[in-house]
Task: structure prediction
Amino acid sequence: MINLKTRQQIITRKRKIKVKTKLFNSAGLNKIYSNSIRVFKEMNIQSRLLFVFSALLIISALGFSLFEYINKKVLREDAFILETDNLPITSSMLTYASSEFSGMGSGLSSIQESSIITTVSSIDYKVKPGDTLSEISKAYNIDVGTLISYNKITDVRRIWVGANLKIPDTNGLPYKVKKGDSLESIAADHNIPLNDILDANNLDSEIISVGDELFIPGAKISEYDYKKATGTLFLYPTNGRLSSPFGYRTDPFTGTRRMHYGVDLANRIGTPVKATMAGTVIVIGHQPLGYGNYIVIRHERGFQSLYGHLSKILVRKGQRVSQGQRIGEMGTTGRSTGPHLHFSLYKNNVPVNPLAGYLYR
Result:
């Protein structure tokens, strides 16, 4: 066992050796520097020019090698090496947006009070544990879209056990008459014969009033409303000009053709960026040679979204965000040629084009 006095002697000896090493290294560097300056001064002008030219060539070669390394690193980052808290996710993409969509998407309510349409018979059904809308629709030979629209379901994931559903005896959609509507225009919009609407609603004439509740037999729920209710509708995350779509493009830095796994939206610095869908923030990071300040949000059904080049981040890791919530501001951080948002959407860690049926105007 080493006593305290011996231990102190060893520590003191190590400190002296360390100081001597530092002095030796410093003196050695100073000597090399001094000799280099002396040799350079003794050279003639031609030798000096040759020396400077050679040094520039070496520096240029090192700089080019560094650039290639950086470029390859960024390419690999674009090819999915971003790390989440547990799974690798893919790269980037985006689509343009409009503020009018800030209120769209899957709502927080589940089943609202359904419309009373006296011309359509319906039965009451109480949701049991393990029920799904698809199973209920098959059991009663009714389209899922009819169940969604007839019961005004805004989010199928929030239908609770014990909730009452009304199941109509025929497929179709309820419709509330708006200002400017006519039976002819309603029939044309839904591609349904006018007489079918008259018969289904026991109407003797085509006279209707604003606020009237109708049933459009055979009409199909829109893809927008279906995805809204099933939680697969994504909001436009910001406003701006679409500057680069999903797909192959010429890299603005290298000039080479490469895959762009996202969509770029250009606008002013500070333009609000919103969550495309409700979810949990799983990554907040900064990539000087990549996405700059970026956010990754995990959504249900295996979806993830990435928001890159932000000037500000307004959320924290682990935070639960709602659809349309402001999460950051547009910027030009990272590998960027100007202010824009780089938005990516992934399904089970594979990039998908958000303009291919995911985002809606």
Remarks:
- Confidence is low (pLDDT under 50) at residues 1-7, 69-117.
- The two ends are 77 Å apart (CA to CA).
